[in-house]
């Protein structure tokens, strides 16, 4: 039985962890995840999805703020693991830690060398890619730069957003890891180096990238909205305050970019640089997320054709 230390944080990683725990070929000695964080306006302490799985299986949990030089890393190295599996962990692994085990592999949610970094699923949607995938790669002390062990992909559907694609790719990653790891550990699956000329990056989304530029095409804005939902959520401005748009669809229409060109009790259509965007789910400042119909019948009842967003 191969003894593993698992490192991961979000629901994507939790799905991978559950798959490993269900496979009798592996024993998970411990789980390493990011520290619990205070979230929301009420600053409620929230455990990570990976920690929740670990606790359900009575696994030891380590949550160092930073692995390098920590007492947690020393404790992890003393466990006698054969290898490390990571999935969306959120920290670099020190070289000393990597050298302390026989193998260290990562489940990365992109088709490397495309989209190295922390937001590959967001970028696949924002850029309008037709497919998204997962790569199993060897860990090195450089972001997502290790040799590739295996890869698989799925089509991106029109209805996909970050949340749905995360769920789908978590299953792809789980199954790909479990199908490729035995052959890799047996020396029958030879890793392939990444082509440096094809490397692109997907850094974490910055606040300024969340703002909708109405001069872009309707298709670009549709991709931006779904590429940021359910987090961090794209937004524009209305009455000088932030106005979040969680869901929208591209439709026909024309007018000055950002201008409301159609409005009734259930529909709100805004012109873009090319085409128009029909808003479906929104969140005005200080209000909860709501359907556009609820917005138009409430906080947005005075919104009229000719009004502009983004000002």
TrEMBL record:
Residues 204-299 form the Formyl transferase C-terminal domain. Keywords: Protein biosynthesis, Transferase. Coiled coil: none annotated. Residues 3-178 form the Formyl transferase N-terminal domain. It catalyses: L-methionyl-tRNA(fMet) + (6R)-10-formyltetrahydrofolate = N-formyl-L-methionyl-tRNA(fMet) + (6S)-5,6,7,8-tetrahydrofolate + H(+). Gene3D superfamilies: Formyl transferase, C-terminal domain, Formyl transferase, N-terminal domain. The keyword NADP does not apply. InterPro entries: Fmt (IPR005794), Formyl_trans_C (IPR005793), Formyl_trans_C_sf (IPR037022), Formyl_transf_N (IPR002376), Formyl_transf_N_sf (IPR036477), Formyl_transferase-like_C_sf (IPR011034), GART_AS (IPR001555), Met-tRNA-FMT_C (IPR044135). GO terms for molecular function: methionyl-tRNA formyltransferase activity. It comes from the Bacteria. It holds the Pfam family Formyl_trans_C. The keyword Protein biosynthesis applies. (6S)-5,6,7,8-tetrahydrofolate binds at residues 110-113. Its EC number is 2.1.2.9. GO terms for cellular component: cytosol. Attaches a formyl group to the free amino group of methionyl-tRNA(fMet). The formyl group appears to play a dual role in the initiator identity of N-formylmethionyl-tRNA by promoting its recognition by IF2 and preventing the misappropriation of this tRNA by the elongation apparatus. Belongs to the Fmt family. This is Methionyl-tRNA formyltransferase. It comes from Streptococcus suivaginalis.
